[in-house]
Structure formats: structure tokens, C-alpha cells
């Protein structure tokens, strides 16, 4: 896979985490259904784990080793 594509996927994954986080916070501050806030925070944790896995995978495949 091309490094540019991976960079775009990382940006989208981190953006998804941010959007879910703000949706959960907005719902919590409005005082709406607490179950929805809890569901959004669980979704954020899952999205965050996926974003971290993508980032670590990119570092593993495209990272540069120590200079020899």
C-alpha cells in the first residue's frame, strides 16, 4: 500500500475519533440520554483503538530503522 494512502487513512481515523468524542461531549453537556453518551464514548474507544492500530502498522511498515 502506498504511504500517501496510509497517511490519508490515519487522518480519517483520527478525525473520526475527534468527531465521535465531540458528539459524545455535546450530548452529555446538553443533558440528553446518558445511554447515548455512554454508547458514543464506547464507540470512541473502539475508533481510537483502530486508529492506533493503523498508526502502529504504518510505523512498522514505513518507519525508518536506525541510521547505520
The low-pLDDT segments are: none
Order of helices and strands: HH
Distance from first to last alpha carbon: 26 Å
How large is the count of helical segments? 2
Let me know the number of strands: 0
**What would the principal axes of the Cα set say about the shape?**
elongated
Residue-averaged pLDDT, rounded? Answer: 89
Largest sheet, strands/sense/barrel: none
In terms of DSSP E residues, the strand content is: under 5%
Kindly state the percentage of residues in helix: over 70%
Global Rg: 16 Å
Q: Which secondary-structure class do the elements indicate?
A: mainly alpha
Plain-language structure description:
The chain has 68 residues and is mainly alpha-helical. Helices cover 84% and strands 0% of the residues. It has two helices and no strands. The protein has helices at 3-30, 34-62. The longest helix has 29 residues, at 34-62. 6% of the residues are buried. The model has no long low-confidence stretch (mean pLDDT 89).
List the helices and strands and how they pair.
Layout: H1 3-30, H2 34-62
Q: Key terms for this structure?
A:
elongated; 68 residues; 84% helix
Summarize this, please?
The protein has helices at 3-30, 34-62. It is an all-alpha fold and 68 residues long.
